[in-house]
Amino acid sequence: MKASYDVVIVGGAVIGSSVAYWLAENTGFDGSILVVERDSSYTFSSTALSTSAIRQQYSNPINVKISQFGVEFIEGFRERMQKFYPGEKSPDLGFKEHGYLYCYSPEGVEPAKERVELQRSLGAHTEFLAPGALKAKFPWLNVDDLGGGSWGARKEGWFDSMGMMGGFKRGARAMGVEYIDNEVQGVTITGDKVSGVKLATGGVIACGLLVNAAGPRANKIANMAGLNIPVEPRKRHSFVFSSMTPIPGRMPNVIDMNGTFVRPENQLFLTGNTPTPDGPADYDDFETKHDEFDDYIWPTLYNRIPQFDALKVQQFWTGHYAYNTLDHNAIMGFHPRVTNFMFANGFSGHGLQQSPAVGRGVSELIVSGEYQTLDLSPLSYGRVERNEPFMEDAVI
């Protein structure tokens, strides 16, 4: 480790490693990059504890486009990463293209149809299905209380989260990026710029630019620079269960009206929801709330899929969303006054699927001062200071 780097990235999970990968690959950048990761085992990282899914069913065009690039990246991952695996086959991310199925109440039909039209206008394969069509396609689904559903017939599903992050990290390191197992405990400001970061092991690493990719701890890093962003950790509980009755056919990721989701995992099923109540969590609190499954999730599953009458939880875990309380969307780009402090934060559960486009966009902004591919400027930090939400309604 050197005493100074051109770019220091705080956080080395999927967002930080994607930024490192794309920046190192960018032909316009020839500087040094250091990634500081406080948990190199990634045991409690949002990446490792994610449910690892990707969809195009969003309410904002930019989020649809971000996911479209994400799918393109996932599908081409093995070929793209092969050069970093000399003498062996690069990993496949095991993309399960089963789609998402959103269930809607009768009152939610018209807004749902508008979202489907928007998504289709951008090239997505979403279809709106009336209750009869839903029942015909998914006979195991209870549609009695539904007004319809939107189904992503293609380019939606789930994949290997750690495989993606591992590919970013391996590629970044092969191109000269350094990783250290340490924790940033302070940010040094000189004038209107970050001049260095203080490490838990002592000492200060000088830097020309700092990227905040600290996930649920993003506001802690911002505070160290005298800044503030509306990002907090929120717990999300995941349960893997077995069912006495199998579900026939190709089951999508089913999203019920209250946000509870369920999808197949080989012979088992994965489920989760928005906890009740849903509020900020302590940074180190990963305790699972088991009554969430018994009191909220199972009744919802049984109502929507009556075959789920006899279930047994086989595995569980709890991760954190980096939840943006302003508008549930990412906060990206430079701070207007601390001019070399860059945000890549607040993904509200979408960070994994958005990481390919976000890393590419951040690298473009660093090198060129503007976005070259997707215009991610609607996600800029400025809206936080103006208190102008750029809302994303399709949050799970």
Automatic annotation (TrEMBL):
Alphabetical keyword list: Membrane, Oxidoreductase, Transmembrane, Transmembrane helix
Record keyword Repressor present: no
GO biological process: mitochondrial respiratory chain complex I assembly
GO molecular function: oxidoreductase activity
Transmembrane segments: 7-24
Organism: Pseudorhodobacter turbinis
Any Pfam family: DAO
Gene Ontology CC terms: cytoplasm
The keyword Oxidoreductase appears for this protein: yes
Name this protein carries in UniProt: FAD-binding oxidoreductase
SUPFAM superfamilies: FAD/NAD(P)-binding domain (SSF51905)
Domain (FAD dependent oxidoreductase) ranges: 6-365
